[in-house]
Structure formats: C-alpha cells, structure tokens
Predict the 3D structure of the following.
Amino acid sequence: MDYPSKVLSKAVEEIAGLPGIGKKSALRLALHLLRQPASQGISLGTSIQNLVTDIKYCKECHNFSDSDVCDICSDEKRNDELLCIVEDVRDVMAIENTGKYKGKYLVLGGKISPMEGIGPSQLRIGSIEKKLNEGVVKELIFALSATMEGDTTAYYIYKKFKSLQVMFSSIARGIAVGDELEYADEISLGRSITNRTAYNEAG
Ligand SMILES: [Zn+2]
C-alpha cells in the first residue's frame, strides 16, 4: 500500500509488527490516534517506552516487578512454605486472580520442549534449587499446563529434587487436557489450586 506520508507508513509498519495485527488494522489504529488529542498518542508512546526500559524481573521468582523483589515475594503475610511452579508470568496473574493461593511462585520461563529446542538448562531450574536449599519450602506445587511438555517438565523437576525433604503436588486437572493454564476460568482454576493432589511419577 502507498501511504501519503513516510511518518504514517513507518507507524503502520511498526504497529503491524505486533502479533495479530495486520496492515489494515494497523492503519486504522494509526488514523484513530491521529484523530485523538496528541497527548493521548504521546502518553501511549511513553508507556510503551517505559514498559520496555523500566520493567524488571523479580530476582526471587522472576515475575515482572517494578523493583528488585516483587510485591508477592516481599509480602510477609504470604506463606513461604508453598512454592508454586508456573511456566509464565501470565500464569501468576491467572492464579492471583482466583484469590485462592497465598504462597509464593517461581516462574520457569517456559517448559521443556524438544520440538522447540527448549531444554532444562533454558529454564530457571537453578532458582528452584536455590529456593529449596534455603530449607523453608515444604511443598512444591506444579501448576503447569496439562500437555506433554508440561508433564515432562514436572517430571524432570520431581526427579531432580525428590530426594529433598519436600512434598510435591499438582493442581487438580479439572481443566481439560491441552488447555493452557492462562485460559482456564477463574473458578475452576481456583478450585484446582485448592484441591491439588499429591504428585507421583505417574503424573
Ligand atoms: Zn517475586
């Protein structure tokens, strides 16, 4: 498509670079911004800039944070004895939304997937080890997706740490097999974290 302005063309190109947005939608969004007061577009731009330059990862759990340690990890009212293993920060948000979990988290940053070339060394298994070595955690809860990759990841972690004095559990699988955790509805996710079951090698 030919654009009457290089500035517009560049903006459309950048917006269309986001997932799920085609050139047409990108143009619509750019034109929308031009119809709004300039302050709105400037505020959006600043917010995107802050997002990519200022966001930090919690050094304890790898959740997003505005400081070195996130609000969940620094909350003294939360139970240090429970450590919930999730793949992604979106899973932390999903579980937090249920309001049914008051322990801590550890964000793995993915799951073991030979197909995608992701092995244990690319995940934050070392951070789990560090947490467990502190000797406070009593229960390690797997809240991984009910997929082969999720199961493989849980099994790997279980095998690596099963000799330690820690209980292993898994969120109840009321969620249909193959569903990603982030898409589970709040009520069933809340129920599945409350009714978690002991983890054994059979999964
Ligand atoms: Zn944290």
